[in-house]
Amino acid sequence: MYHSEKKSLGRFLIIYLSSTMTLFIIAMSIFYSSERHNLLDSQKESIKKESINMIHKLRELHQENSNIVIYPKNLSYQSAIFNVDKKEMFSTFNYPIFNFNREFFIQNQKLFFLTKVEPYYIGSAYLLLQRDINYDSIDSLKKKMLIFIVLVFVFLCFLGFFLGRLFIAPMKKSISLLNSFIEDTTHELNTPISTILANIELIEMFGYCENREEMNRIEIASKSLSHIYNDLTYLKLNHKYNRVIIEVNISILLKERVDYFSTKIESKNLSLNLNIMDNIIWKIDINDAIRVIDNLLSNAIKYNKNSGELNIELSKDKLIISDDGVGIETKDLKNIFKRFKRANNSEGGFGIGLNIVYQIIKDYKLDIEIKSKIDIGTTVIIKYKF
Length: 386
Hints:
alpha+beta, Heat Shock Protein 90, 2 domains, 5-stranded mixed beta sheet, 8 helices
């Protein structure tokens, strides 16, 4: 799966799971609140029934007319009775301060129920009952809901992944067709480009061409095609290939690549300023090094102005390539490394060169910085510690 497909699938899953789980959790919260209310209601109903029992027993005591009164107790409930002036007559527990106008109230995880006693059996006017709230059923409900939420989340992940694959299927097909096109194109380009370049080298080596300017144009066009071919090949491999990391003398390689672009440099009448320190060694795959250097040089030449300057500096810890060309707007700098992003349409190109450079730089854990101003120029700095 390509990076763009993974990114699209990831975004779809985030939106799908977050929205679905939000709605589901809201529904479960409403359900939990309702069930908790029902469980408390059942306990309220139980304590209310016990109050009827207690009043019945108080009535029996009232009717006995005995001098010895044994107050009825229940191990499951605590109780207290008050007279008409709301003064305590008898209590089996220390009750909190409460409002005599409230029927039910909860305090310190205990449920209280207050009811009137009519008529005033044994002088009591109010009966207060208290019991511990049974949270076992509520805790059990919480655990079941938590397990259910986890199971639903796992199910939604699988469902979301399946739906996501269906969602990105058209894009996947388009990318597959594009890759097939790139593969076929690069295959078809390889032979004619190699033939043209080989013949140009033979003419330069063994013969003399009167129309030197035309030959230069052919050489520039051929090398441009060759550069595009190499970039497309890199994209086709998705920058995943067998790298051979060796010690590369970048000082020598950089000069060779400048020579390779010499015809292009001359065609724009650029002033070339080289400040290359000798024997700078990078531990890198030589093809990666060539891609980085070629793309940076190609951009510096392509977007430079005629008779402008091309400055190349290589030191122990950095490579700097700068031009005084068209420049890049500040708002475009943050997206300049994105694939197919072109900050300037004045010249040709596909917008893949800097993306390739960025991918290689990232693979080797290096730092790259671009400074640019419109109509002043662009400077690319690669900092390294090999």
